[in-house]
C-alpha cells in the first residue's frame, strides 16, 4: 500500500521540475539563483528516493500485509509523501502564482522581494528536512522491516508468496463441496455437456467472472466428476506470476501419475524446451482433461498452447479467469460467464451453510428477516455467502446475535480473521493492478455503494487528480479510457451500460469489492466518504486528501475546515440549500484544492477568493444558478475543466482566454426545460483571444460571432463542439474552421433563428472521426442530395453513428438518402420533415438502435417494412399530431426494449389498443396531460401495458 500516494508525489515533483515551472521560477527568482538551484536539486533527490521507496513497496506489499512493523513503516512513508506533496504545492504556488497587482501598489517593491525570498528559504529548508527524513526512513527499513534475511529478498520470494497464496485460496475454493454449489445447475450442465460431447477436436472452455463467484468451485466439481472419463487429467493453478517451466513440470507430473504410473526422475533437470517436447509427446496419444485455474493473462495460455498440441483424441482444456480477454480465447459457444446469485439462491446457499444440521436447512421464521438482510449484503457472491454462513454457523443463532452480525458485517468483512480468504480473493485482484490503476480504482470506491459512475465525468476527475500521464501520441483522455476499460476487463468494475455505438457509458463497483476498497482508501489516507453521520470527524486530526460528500449535514463546514490538506471535494448531495457556503469555505481555507465538483448545488455566486486556488484543475458547477464568474478566475492557470453546463451563466470574463491549459469548457444556459423552443439554450461569447485556448477539446457552447468563428480553426484538439446562433453569413468561415479539426467527434450547430438556412456544403470532407452530428435550423434540400458531404465516398458520413435533425423543415423525404449511412445507430427528427409520409424499406438502417420522431406536424402515415431497422431497440414517437393510424408494420420490429407513443389523443390510444401490438408492452402519454401539467417531465406520467 501507499504506492499510489507515493507515485502521485513523484509525479508532482515532476511538474515542479518540468520546463514550465523551471522557466517561470528562473524569471521570477533572477536574483536568487543559488537558492533556487539548491532547492531544485533537493527536490530531484527527494524524487529519486521516493521512486526507490515506491519500487521497494511494490515488491513488499503482498507478503507483509498485516505485519505491524511493516505497516508502521509504510504509514511513515505515506505521511512523508503527503508532506512532500504539500511542500511542492507551496513551491508551485510561489513560482506560478501571480501576485495581486492591487497589492503591489501598496507595498514597496523591496518588501515584496524580501517576502518572496523568505518564502523561498522556508520551502528550501522544509525540502532539506524532508530529504534527510526520507534517507533516514529508507535506512530504517533495513533495520526493522527486513530483519530476517534481508539478503534473500529477491522478487522471486514475493512471487512465490503470491503463488502460494493463490494456491491456498484455490484449494479453499476447490474444497467447497457439492452442497456449496447453488444456482449453478445450468452452468454445470453446460459444462458437463461440453466436457463429454463426442467431438474429437480438442477444445478450450472458459469460465469467467469476478473473484468469489465460484469459478474454481464449479471447475473443481466438474473435474471431480468427469476426470475418470479421460485417459489422463491434470489440474494446475496458474496465477499471475507463473513460471512456464513450473507449470509444465506440474502438468507432466500430474498427467503421467494418473495415466502411466510412471515417475519422472529427471524432470527437474530438463529445460523448458525439453519439457514442452515431453508434454507434446504425451498429449499426442491421449485424451486429456486439463484445468488451468486462475489465469490472468492471455500470454500465459499462448505460452502453454505452444505445447498443448491439438490432437484428435477429444482432449479438453478448461480455463478459469477473472479477465475477459482470457475468456475470449475460447469460442463464443464455449464460454461461461458467472453472474452473482439471485436472492432466492443466495438465501438457500446461506441457510445450507449456516444451518447444515436442520432438515431442509430451514431457519426459524423469526430469523428470516434478519437473514435476508445479512444475505443481501453479500450481493450474490457465493464465496461471501458461504463464509458469512460459516460465521453464523459457529455462533448462537439467536435474534440478538444475528442482529449483531448484521450490524457489524461491513466491519467483519474487513476485519474478521475467518473472513480473511474473502478479503484475500478480492484483495488479490487489487494487488495485481498496475500502480497507476490502483489510484483510479480506489477513487471509484469513494462514491456510495451502487453509485452509477459515468465515463466522461470520471475520466475528467482522474485527469484533474493527476492519475493519468500522456502516453505516446494518445491524449490523457484516451489513456484514461484505456484504464477504465482495463478495470472493467479485470472485473473490478461492472459495466452497466454502453452507448448506442458500444462505448462504455456507465458502470459501478461491485458492493463487496467496494467494502474492501473503502478500507484500503482509509488505510492509505487516500480519501474518505462523508455521509453526514460520521462521529469521528470532530476530534481526529485528519490527513485525507479527498472528500466525497454523499450526504450533507450541518457540520460539513467544520469537516472541511479541519481537513486543510484536502485536494478534492466532490459533493453528490444537492438536497440542501445551505450547501452554497461550501464554495466559500473551500476558497478561503483549502489552498491546495485541485478538484472541486459541486454540480447540482444551488450556488448563486462564486467568491473572488476562488482565484487563490492556484492548484485548481477542475471546477464543476453544472446546473448551478451562477450567472457571472469573478474576474479572478483568470488566475486559475492550471484549470483543465470549467463546467457551467446548464447553469445560469450569461457571460464569461474576458480573462477566460488566459487559461491556456483548459481542455473542457462547458458553459450553457438553459432557457426551456422541455427543450421544445428553437433556442432552448444560450451559449457564451468569447469575443477575443479564443485562438489562444489551443488545448480545448470540448467547447459547449459558443455563441457565434464573426471573430470567434474565424479563429475557431486554431483549436486543433477539438473533440466536442456546440455552437448556437449561427448566422447564414458565418457558415463559410465556420466550414473552413471545422475542416481543420481532425479529431472532431461531436458537432452541434444551431442557427440564429428557425428560418435561417444552414449552408454546410463547404464541410467537405466531413472530419474523419465525426461520430455525432446535431443540426438545428433549416437545411437546404441539397444537404441531403448527392453532392452533400454526408454521402461522399471517401470519408463522408460512413463514420456517423448519431444524427439529430431539428427544425430542418425538409420537404423531400430524407430517408432514402439517409439510409445510405449504414453505420447509423441513432436517428432523431424534430420538425425535420414537413411531408406526410415516412417509409422504412427492407434492409434500411441495419444498425439503428434508437429512433425518435418528434413534432412532425404533417406526418400522416408511417410504414415499416419487414427487415427494416433490424437492430432497433428504442422507438419514441412524440406529438405526431396528424397521424391517425398506427404505423404500418410496427409489429415487425417488436419486441423493443422501449416503445412509446407520446402526446397522443384518446382516439389514437384506442386504435393502438386494437392494433396488432395491442397487447404488447409500450408506453404512452396523452396530449391533454401535457397541456394540463406543463411542468411535469414528459416521461413521468407514462403508464404501462
Ligand atoms: C514482520 O516482519 C519482520 C521483519 O520482516 C519480522 O521480523 C516479523 O516477525 C514480522 N512479524 C509478523 C507478525 O509477521
Ligand atoms: C528467480 O528464480 C529463478 C530460478 O528459479 C532464477 O533463474 C532467477 O534468476 C530468479 N530471479 C531473480 C530476480 O532472482
Ligand atoms: C494570445 O496569446 C498571445 C501569445 O501567447 C498573446 O500575445 C496574446 O495577447 C494573447 N491574446 C489574448 C487575447 O490574450
Ligand atoms: C461503416 O460501415 C462500413 C460499411 O458497412 C464499414 O466498412 C466501416 O468499417 C464502418 N465504419 C465504422 C467506423 O464502423
Ligand atoms: C405539437 O405539435 C404541434 C404542431 O403539430 C405544435 O403546435 C405543438 O406546439 C406541439 N406540442 C408541443 C408540446 O410542443
Automatic annotation (TrEMBL):
All copies of domain Disease resistance N-terminal, residue ranges: 22-101
Domain of life: Eukaryota
Domain (Disease resistance protein winged helix): residue spans on this chain: 446-517
Database matches in SUPFAM superfamilies: L domain-like, P-loop containing nucleoside triphosphate hydrolases
Annotated GO biological process: defense response to bacterium; innate immune response-activating signaling pathway; plant-type hypersensitive response
Residue intervals of the Disease resistance R13L4/SHOC-2-like LRR domain: 566-913
Family: Belongs to the disease resistance NB-LRR family.
Name assigned to this protein: NB-ARC domain-containing protein
Amino acid at each position: 500500500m501507499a504506492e499510489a500516494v507515493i507515485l502521485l508525489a513523484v509525479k508532482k515533483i515532476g511538474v515542479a521540475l518540468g520546463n514550465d515551472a523551471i522557466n517561470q521560477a528562473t524569471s521570477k527568482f533572477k536574483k536568487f539563483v543559488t537558492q533556487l538551484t539548491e532547492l531544485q536539486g533537493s527536490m530531484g533527490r527527494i524524487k529519486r528516493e521516493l521512486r526507490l521507496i515506491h519500487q521497494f513497496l511494490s515488491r513488499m506489499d503482498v507478503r507483509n500485509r498485516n505485519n505491524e512493523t511493516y505497516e508502521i513503516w509504510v504509514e511513515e512513508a505515506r505521511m512523508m509523501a503527503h508532506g512532500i506533496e504539500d511542500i511542492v504545492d507551496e513551491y508551485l504556488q510561489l513560482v506560478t502564482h501571480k501576485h495581486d497587482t492591487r497589492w503591489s501598489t501598496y507595498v514597496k517593491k523591496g518588501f515584496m522581494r524580501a517576502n518572496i525570498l523568505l518564502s523561498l528559504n522556508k520551502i528550501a529548508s522544509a525540502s532539506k528536512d524532508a530529504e534527510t527524513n526520507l534517507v533516514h526512513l529508507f535506512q530504517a527499513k533495513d533495520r526493522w522491516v527486513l530483519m530476517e534475511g534481508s539478503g534473500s529478498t529477491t522478487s522471486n520470494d514475493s512471487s512465490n508468496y503470491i503463488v502460494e497464496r493463490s494456491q491456498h485460496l484455490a484449494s479453499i475454493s476447490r474444497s467447497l463441496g457439492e452442497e456449496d454449489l447453488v444456482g449453478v445447475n445450468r452452468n454445470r450442465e453446460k459444462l458437463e455437456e461440453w466436457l463429454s460431447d463426442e467431438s474429437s477436436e480438442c477444445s478450450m472452455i472458459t469460465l469467467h467472472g469476478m473473484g468469489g463467484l465460484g469459478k474454481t468451485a464449479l471447475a473443481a466439481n466438474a473435474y471431480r466428476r468427469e476426470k475418470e472419463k479421460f485417459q489422463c487429467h491434470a489440474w494446475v493453478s496458474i496465477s499471475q506470476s507463473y513460471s512456464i517451466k513450473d507449470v509444465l513440470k506440474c502438468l507432466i507430473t500430474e498427467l503421467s501419475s494418473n495415466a502411466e504410473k510412471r515417475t519422472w526422475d529427471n524432470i527437474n533437470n530438463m529445460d523448458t524446451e525439453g519439457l514442452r517436447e515431453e508434454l507434446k509427446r504425451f498429449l499426442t496419444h491421449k485424451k486429456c482433461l486439463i484445468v488451468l485455474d486462475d489465469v490472468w493473462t492471455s500470454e500465459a495460455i499462448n505460452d502453454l498452447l505452444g505445447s498443448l498440441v491439438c490432437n484428435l483424441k477429444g482432449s479438453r482444456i478448461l480455463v478459469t479467469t477473472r479477465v475477459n480477454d482470457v475468456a475470449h480465447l475460447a469460442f463464443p459457444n464455449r464460454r461461461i460467464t458467472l453472474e452473482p446469485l439471485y436472492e432466492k439462491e443466495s438465501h438457500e446457499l446461506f441457510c445450507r451453510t449456516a444451518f447444515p444440521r436442520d432438515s431442509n436447512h430451514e431457519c426459524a421464521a423469526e430469523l428470516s428477516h434478519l437473514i435476508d438482510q445479512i444475505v443481501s449484503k453479500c450481493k450474490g457472491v457465493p464465496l461471501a455467502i458461504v463464509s458469512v454462513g460459516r460465521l453464523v454457523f459457529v455462533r448462537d443463532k439467536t435474534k440478538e446475535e444475528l442482529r449483531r452480525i448484521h450490524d457489524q458485517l461491513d466491519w467483519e468483512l474487513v476485519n474478521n480473521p475467518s473472513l480473511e480468504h474473502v478479503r484475500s480473493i478480492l484483495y488479490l485482484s487489487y494487488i495485481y493492478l498496475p500502480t497507476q490503476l490502483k489510484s483510479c480504482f480506489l477513487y471509484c470506491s469513494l462514491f456510495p455503494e451502487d453509485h452509477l459512475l459515468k465515463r466522461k465525468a470520471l475520466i475528467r476527475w482522474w485527469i484533474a487528480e493527476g492519475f493519468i500521464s500522456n502516453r505516446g501520441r494518445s491524449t490523457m483522455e484516451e489513456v484514461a479510457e484505456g484504464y477504465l476499460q482495463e478495470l472493467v476487463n479485470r472485473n473490478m468494475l461492472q459495466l452497466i451500460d454502453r452507448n448506442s455505438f458500444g462505448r462504455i457509458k456507465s458502470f459501478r463497483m461491485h458492493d463487496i469489492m467496494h467494502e474492501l476498497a473503502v478500507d484500503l482508501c482509509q488505510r492509505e489516507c487516500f480519501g474518505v466518504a462523508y455521509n453526514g453521520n460520521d462521529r469521528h470527524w470532530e476530534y481526529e486530526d485528519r490527513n485525507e486528501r479527498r472528500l466525497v460528500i454523499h450526504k450533507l449535514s450541518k457540520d460539513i463546514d467544520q469537516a472541511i475546515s479541519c481537513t486543510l490538506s484536502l485536494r478534492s471535494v466532490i459533493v453528490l448531495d444537492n438536497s440542501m440549500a445551505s450547501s452554497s457556503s461550501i464554495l466559500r469555505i473551500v476558497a478561503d481555507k483549502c489552498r491546495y484544492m485541485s478538484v472541486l465538483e459541486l454540480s447540482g448545488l444551488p450556488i448563486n455566486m462564486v467568491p473572488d477568493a476562488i482565484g487563490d486556488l492556484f492548484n485548481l484543475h477542475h471546477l464543476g458547477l453544472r446546473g448551478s444558478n451562477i450567472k457571472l464568474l469573478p474576474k479572478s478566475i483568470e488566475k486559475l492557470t492550471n484549470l483543465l475543466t470549467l463546467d457551467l453546463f446548464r447553469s445560469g451563466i450569461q457571460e464569461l470574463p474576458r480573462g477566460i482566454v488566459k487559461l491556456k491549459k483548459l481542455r473542457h469548457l462547458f458553459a450553457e444556459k438553459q432557457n426551456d426545460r422541455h427543450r421544445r423552443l428553437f433556442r432552448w439554450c444560450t451559449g457564451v461569447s468569447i469575443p477575443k483571444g479564443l485562438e489562444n485556448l489551443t488545448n480545448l477539446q470540448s467547447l459547449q457552447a459558443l455563441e457565434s460571432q464573426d471573430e470567434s468563428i474565424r479563429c475557431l480553426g486554431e483549436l486543433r484538439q477539438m473533440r466536442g463542439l456546440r455552437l448556437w446562433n449561427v448566422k447564414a453569413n458565418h457558415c463559410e468561415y465556420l466550414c473552413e474552421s471545422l475542416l481543420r479539426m481532425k479529431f472532431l467527434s461531436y458537432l452541434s450547430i444551431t442557427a440564429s433563428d428557425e428560418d435561417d438556412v444552414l449552408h454546410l456544403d463547404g464541410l467537405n470532407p466531413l472530419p474523419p472521426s465525426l461520430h455525432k452530428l446535431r443540426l438545428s435550423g433549416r437545411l437546404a434540400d441539397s444537404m441531403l442530395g448527392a453532392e452533400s458531404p454526408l454521402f461522399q465516398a471517401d470519408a463522408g458520413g460512413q463514420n456517423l453513428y448519431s444524427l439529430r435533425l431539428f427544425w430542418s423543415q425538409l420537404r423531400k423525404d430524407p430517408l432514402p438518402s439517409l439510409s445510405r449511412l449504414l453505420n447509423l445507430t441513432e436517428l432523431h427528427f424534430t420538425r425535420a420533415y414537413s411531408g406526410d409520409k415516412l417509409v422504412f424499406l427492407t434492409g434500411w438502417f441495419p444498425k439503428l438502435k434508437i429512433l425518435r420522431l418528434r413534432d412532425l406536424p404533417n406526418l400522416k402515415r408511417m410504414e415499416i417494412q419487414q427487415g427494416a431497422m433490424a437492430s432497433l431497440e428504442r422507438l419514441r414517437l412524440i406529438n405526431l399530431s396528424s397521424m391517425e393510424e398506427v404505423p404500418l408494420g410496427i409489429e415487425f420490429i417488436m419486441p423493443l426494449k422501449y416503445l412509446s407513443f407520446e402526446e397522443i389523443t384518446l382516439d389514437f390510444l384506442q386504435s393502438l389498443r386494437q392494433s396488432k401490438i395491442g397487447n404488447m408492452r409500450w408506453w404512452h402519454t396523452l396530449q391533454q396531460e401535457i397541456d394540463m401539467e406543463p411542468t411535469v417531465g414528459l416521461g413521468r406520467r407514462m403508464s404501462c401495458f
